[in-house]
Structure formats: structure tokens, C-alpha cells
Amino acid sequence: MVEESFTDPEETHEEWIDVRMTDPDEGEWDIDVVVVEGQVEYVDLRIKPELLAAFVDCLVEDVGDDRAEAVLSTVAERNGIDLGDSGEE
């Protein structure tokens, strides 16, 4: 049996997002993984609502500004959220 271990991906940062739990003892995330025949088939990552903004920050800081803006715009559009001027100056 071949034993495989995780290695960093060879693709550029635009193709992968690196997310790390900063304090596992605090239970920042709850991860549920389904493994079938030795392969991960499904991952459910739940995060505490109060940590969501920091989690999204972590995701978008790994990509360029244009890519981050495109991702946030797509998510906002899918959820009917207007990212226009919030009235704050």
C-alpha cells in the first residue's frame, strides 16, 4: 500500500486558497469529512458566525485584488446583496 502525505500544491496562488485554523483549541471550525475507500469525498466546514469576516479575509488575501473582488461580487449577487455605496464616508 502506498502511503501518501500532503504536500503544497504546485499551482499558483490564484488556483489555491490557503486557510489555516489559528487556534484549534478554541474550536474555531467544525469539520465533518466523509472518507470513501480511503479518499475524501466530502468536506463540510462550519465556522462560528462571529469569525466569518476573518475567515473571508483569510480567503481573499491569498488572491489578487481583481480575483478577490470578482469572488465577493459573485457571492453578493448570488445572495441578493448590494455591495454599492453604503453611505459611509
From TrEMBL:
It comes from the Archaea. This is Uncharacterized protein. It comes from Haloplanus aerogenes.
